[in-house]
Amino acid sequence: MLTESTRSKDFPALAGRTYLNTAAESVPPLCVGEAIQSYWQDKLSGMDGRQGHFAAVEACREVSARMVGLSPDEVSFCSCSSEAYNLFASALDLGKGDEVVVSDLDFPAGATPWLRSPGARAPDVRVWPSVDGVLDIADLIPLLGENTRLVQISLISFYNGHRIDWKPFQELVRRLAPAALISVDVTQALGRVVLDCEGADLLISSTHKWTLGIHGGCVIGIPRRNAQRLTTHAGGWYHLNNAFDADRFERAESKTGAASFSVGMPNFVSLYALDAALRYLESIGIEAISAHADPLVARVHEGLRELGIHPLCPPQPHLPGGIVAFRHRDSAALHAALVQAGIHVMHHAGRIRIAVHGYNTSGDIDHLLATLRAGLRTVRPD
User: Fold this and answer.
1) C-alpha span between 312 and 303 (Å, rounded)
2) Does residue 53 come out as left (phi exceeding 0), alpha (psi in the -120 to 50 range) or beta?
3) Are residues 214 and 151 in the same domain?
4) pTM above 0.90, yes or no
5) Which of 28, 119, 130, 211 is most buried by a 10 A CB count?
6) Helix 286-306 and helix 268-284, axial crossing angle in degrees, nearest 10
7) Quick one: CA dihedral 96, 99, 104, 107, positive or negative?
8) Domain total for the chain?
9) In terms of Cα–Cα distance, which of 353, 362, 364, 368 is closest to 156?
10) Series of mean pLDDT values for 10-residue runs along the chain (382 residues)
């Protein structure tokens, strides 16, 4: 992943491509495809294949727990972050008079469940506004109080790559809103940076981005101290202790905490894939990935500034992440030039987002900046 030889061996799909869109979709290593084939072979055994299926779930739980700094019994899985947040809303069961704080840099999955409560039961949603692409902790202070029940944040924003300075954020919430839970979406961080979310009450991550997995999975981490408090009220069967007992039509007894989020049959194939992907990342080392990719991100920032382009979030050298985004009046033309040059980035509503992972190279960044430079001469002649 970090050298030309390992990149060629493990990621042959990247040959001849400049792929800078991992914040949307990763390109998995070959071992992930092999894991999917293992699932297929087990599936061909019919019911007998479930022995392999459930073993894969437990293996994935074990490595996922290590990656998020929890114990295996504090980690579970569902199908996507949207499902996880809606199940989380079920567990909290907030109502009138409760207050929820979200940021304007958060992904909709984490910010919108609280807006979907029936009118009479809807909590008060307060938005922590970013200023010049940054969430200033001073702007959070007036939003916190004795009625705050939840502060939802993304460790790294999908929108512009802004990363929360976790320790002062967490300490402020605990001091000013002692009854509040802190939930953190680590989708744009897990697999790319060393997590620093100590003290979080809930961690959620999709599996098809920096973790190098595929769609259909989501990691949920709930520390043991919150197991009773964060148990969903959803129906289902896989998360129930008495799903097939004689009293199953009289009561539904849920497992607690993270286990309560796995309400139905696991999406086995996504967990085979995630297990292989996380073990691959672990074998490389997240510290090594950051040490390789962070200087490339710094070069993107520097190169954009030299081109007169101002990223939507300023550099954060002490808080590394993989995303750099910018707006431009000619973004559609610039994106077309990048596509023509074989460069893959995200373009949406005038915003171009660049994502740098461990499989990217200095040549990728050179190609990106050279193409932008040429594109700017076309759309904005000297």
Assistant:
1) 14
2) alpha
3) yes
4) yes
5) 211
6) 80
7) negative
8) 2
9) 353
10) 93 96 98 98 97 97 98 97 96 93 96 83 93 97 98 98 97 97 98 96 98 98 96 94 93 95 96 98 97 98 97 94 96 96 96 98 98 91 51
